Amino acid sequence: MSNPVCVFPQAVSCHAYHTMRNNSIPPENIVHMSYDDVAHSPDNPFPGNLVNTPEGPNLYPGCEIDYRKEEVKPEVFLKVLTGDKEGVKKLIGRDGKVIDSSPDDNVFVTMVGHGVPGVFSFPGFRTLHNTDLNNALKQMYREKRYREMVLYVESSYSGSMFEGILPKNINIYSTTCSNPHEPGYICCWDNYRNAYAGTFYGNAWMYNTDKADVHTETLSQQYDVVTKACHRSHPMQFGDLSMNKKVFAQFQAKAEGYKPSVYLNTQEADSIVGSKFTFAGIDLNNPAIDMVQIATTARRLIESRDLSSQKREEFKAELRHMMLVKEKAESLTKDLVKAAMPNSRGLTENDILTGKERVENSECYKAALSLFSARCPGIDMGRYPFARRNLQAFINLCNHQPQIDVMSAILEVTEKYGICQAL
């Protein structure tokens, strides 16, 4: 089965690159990681072209990328972030650019992709856990690798990367596209590419930076702009909130040489979207980020009147398979919770399935995700972000049950599901 082209992370990161360059930040001060498999994908009707609004400018030319394909993984990102050149070389076999910052430097980091509670997901469901990210940030603080740092994180459940874990006294301010318990949302259906091009959070802050006077507008004012644009999710702020009174030129521009860009603003982009469609309860105008594959396939099937009968059948088969994976992931999780609770300790299975707890036992959670992925390749969480929607239950189990019970339940239940043996 084919995989719908997922435009938004790579288009958003290229827009961010151009925004920083337009604001006179030199390329040697920018590190850009992108899987980079969309612009020249055979499924892209416009080779070498990336946009994050319909009919928007091509963002791919001049978008310099430092790490591609298999180099885009959490281990490399953390080495880049902490300035570990030797660590990067050991991981990828070559010299790579890192954030080689000093106590006098401000650092700006933007991350865009998929996520699950407590995790930011790199391509292929390579997991960056919130504890590992925050430990790296604390290391940077101890080593005096910045004066102040700002992070913008866009993924589903992105608030869980910092809630209750990012210190307020290490000169770091972060915003996220959603709270810890909800997905982010995408926008900007492109009728020519038959794909979603942008995101509410990413488009909002970048278009705001492109248009604003970066020397007078504050991070707090930009956060207000983003909050209004993200009308389905709830952006949040973490860390040292006193920093949001600073103008964002201190993080997104150099003091001199700023020149505004000419991109569409979010409101103009949104107005291009046509009438509302739904499929299996999914809003096909503005689906959740983790539902983008189902939404893209469903919308292509609904809107493309010139499809051959063979192509229609392929789309239908793809939708049936994805809905089967989604259904099996849900039922498997319910059975797993039941198997992991021989001693309920006052909790019910429903408490585990519906609870919204923070990660308290990170080691158990990491081990559970790793074992589940290995034991059930049919529920391909690397390929299907929507199959990860039930992982909050893993957090809740690990918080209340012994790790051995959780791991035993995974072994027991995955053995019974035929889809777990499917490759």
Work out the radius of gyration. 21 Å
Number of helices: 15
Second CATH tier, the architecture of the largest domain: 3-Layer(aba) Sandwich
What structural class do you assign from the helix and strand content?
alpha+beta
Q: Strand fraction band?
A: 5-15%
Please provide the count of β strands: 11
Measured between the Cα atoms of the first and last residue, the distance is 12 Å
* CATH class category name of the largest domain: Alpha Beta
**Spatial order of the strands in the main sheet?**
1-5-6-9
> What is the mean pLDDT?
90
Please explain how this structure is put together.
There is one protein chain. The chain has a four-stranded mixed sheet with strand order 1-5-6-9. It has a three-stranded antiparallel sheet with strand order 2-3-4. The protein has a two-stranded antiparallel ribbon with strand order 7-8. It folds into two domains: 264 residues, Rossmann fold (3-Layer(aba) Sandwich); 95 residues, Topoisomerase I, Chain A, domain 4 (Orthogonal Bundle). Helix 2 packs antiparallel against helix 3, helix 5 packs across helix 6 and helix 9 packs antiparallel against helix 10. By secondary structure, the chain is α+β, with helices and mostly antiparallel strands. It has 15 helices and eleven strands. The N terminus is likely disordered. The chain is globular and about 60 Å long. It holds the Pfam family Peptidase_C13. Belongs to the peptidase C13 family. This is Legumain-like. It comes from Aplysia californica (California sea hare).
